[in-house]
């Protein structure tokens, strides 16, 4: 075989996705992936949207369209961001084929080989995978129960001269931690002083189980020219459509768009039009009410049930939203060793080791509470109870 | 603003796409882009497929799915390739979000910075754009009316030690040239002797206006471990869905898949399922009969009409399929200078200059004959007739 790019060939895929494909067996109950509950999908409403789009704009829906995204969809998602405290115009938005594509494009456009990216530790593995394609290096920043520690961020910036800081401030993956408003301001204060990009990933904030919203860090006007904010319809509408977006300075969006052109031309026209039709014909907040209530029930069921399952001395983050519980087992338990026992018992979680950019902790694990109904959660926990005994 | 990747920022977008967006004005008749005729789309049949998929597999269609693509779709496109003379199993196929994504991923996985890619000259601009993201260098190989000249290919391989050869052997874009079977064997003979990738791009071969098929060069068993073949549903079903694929050695498909994971996770689940449903519920060959007949009519109308429009001494390639006519004007006409006159006259073509990797010829231009009905072609040609007088 002729040679390949040796670096890219060496990268390998997400260890999580391979663990999950190992657990494709329908007999295995998965607390692994970040898949929304399939039964929460508005199959009928989305079906009507596809039908309407094909009836009313069939030729347009099936034809090539712009790399930047359908104007109506750019307008709709910018309105939603504005409602959520991040003032945005349609022109500030590049539609992407899921927010993973946004991460991939940001990696290509913002990072140079050996650029340093500061991250929470642990953090979202697939963002690391995207940035690794640009040969980025990762450095952890200390976190506490309020997320990234501002002083640690400042010293890391001074020590490493990073190109970018990648953060998931709300219902972080994998820890579930949410950064309070006061902390957000302190982080913005630090970022405002240095010549560094903020990459703010916000896939989960609409899945909140209490009555509040958190303002994105990117809303700070001092960061207008140095922030790239990522949103997605995956968790509120459906991930199968692959609709996400990047909000950022227009000069950067233009370069992201030309890079998207080279990498994949455009996002599915029909999926974009169906998404905006669905948003226009439905009240998203009303749609989210039962989903939030159900996910909250599932979270509570899992938190409660885990107490009889995890060994004495465990700790657990109970997040105010999102999808994941993050547990730490007492010595000498090793969640990455136990995961195969769990699979054999018919249940799977993700070993926390996978999410670290430094000092991986074998005692940690991530459990998704959204993908299964309460009775299946109970069954899965029963299976899991044999593992840590 | 913090720094960006200076190289990627310097690349710029496709000059063709900006010319086309300039000509978005509905009053302008476009012979520019490679858009299939919208009226050829099976809007009703595709609509039924989306409906059926959502009724029968709603939860699956809206959920995350594999990076490699839906198994049924991989099977369907491999059957079609096998029918067309390129024996393929489902596992030899990676589904991509349009074949542009295939080109982008191949660029990342196959090429190193400064890798040389040999190409026809002129060639498909967006492939250059994809490979340029990997900092590839391009070198032209001499062509004649049968496409790439095998001896020229061999000397270019010896001279440049390329990583890959990028070819569109059937109804080439932009020239419309098709490489005859005997030439394909000679090219395969050369490629079989050297340690170089063949990237064979084949978007147009289903749009043939005579009763024959051309065997892909990749069908030569000696090239099994060094060929990457790209196919797409864009020209036979619809481009708005973004369904393409790469056929290649499984070791390479795996690396392409992990790279796709990092760059965009997966292709739209619902679009994939709708595509395979449509392929299963329709006879593609029967569907193609009227499309081929209509495109042939349009080709003939444009070829005939151009004779009264282009200045005496022009030459024209009349392709046996595909989408494009390629014209060369006599001295001293300059098609890249005249294009703004054309736009002002209400018609647009693509200056041939854009397609060259070396020695661009200002006398050349590309005209798409598929996008407009015969009467609109006549009207567009009438407008164009004022430009070259």
What is this structure's SSE topology?
Two copies of one chain form a homodimer.
Chain A: H1 6-11, H2 15-22, E1 29-30, H3 43-62, H4 71-83, E2 93-96, H5 99-110, E3 116-120, H6 125-132, E4 137-141, E5 143-144, E6 147-148, H7 150-160, E7 164-167, H8 181-193, E8 197-201, E9 227-232, E10 244-247, H9 250-264, H10 269-281, H11 284-306, E11 315-317, E12 324-328, H12 335-345, E13 347-348, E14 350-351, E15 364-368, H13 374-384
Parallel strand pairs in A: 1-13, 3-4, 3-7, 7-8, 8-9
Antiparallel strand pairs in A: 2-10, 5-6, 9-10, 11-12, 12-15, 14-15
Helix pairs in contact in A: 3-10, 5-6, 5-9, 7-8, 11-13
Tell me what the structure shows.
The structure is a homodimer of 389-residue chains. By secondary structure, chain A is of the alpha/beta class. Chain A folds into 2 domains: 6-42 and 285-384, Alpha-Beta Complex (Aspartate Aminotransferase, domain 1), CATH 3.90.1150.10; 44-281, Aspartate Aminotransferase, domain 2, CATH 3.40.640.10. Chain A has helices at residues 6-11, 15-22, 43-62, 71-83, 99-110, 125-132, 150-160, 181-193, 250-264, 269-281, 284-306, 335-345, 374-384; strands at residues 29-30, 93-96, 116-120, 137-141, 143-144, 147-148, 164-167, 197-201, 227-232, 244-247, 315-317, 324-328, 347-348, 350-351, 364-368. A 7-stranded mixed beta sheet of chain A has the order 2-10-9-8-7-3-4, with helices on both faces. In chain A, strands 11-12-15-14 form a 4-stranded antiparallel beta sheet. A two-stranded parallel ribbon of chain A has the order 1-13. In chain A, strand 3, helix 6 (125-132) and strand 4 form a beta-alpha-beta unit. In chain A, helix 3 (43-62) crosses helix 10 (269-281), helix 5 runs parallel beside helix 6 and helix 11 (284-306) runs parallel beside helix 13 (374-384). Chain A starts with 5 loop residues before the first helix and ends in a 5-residue tail after the last helix.
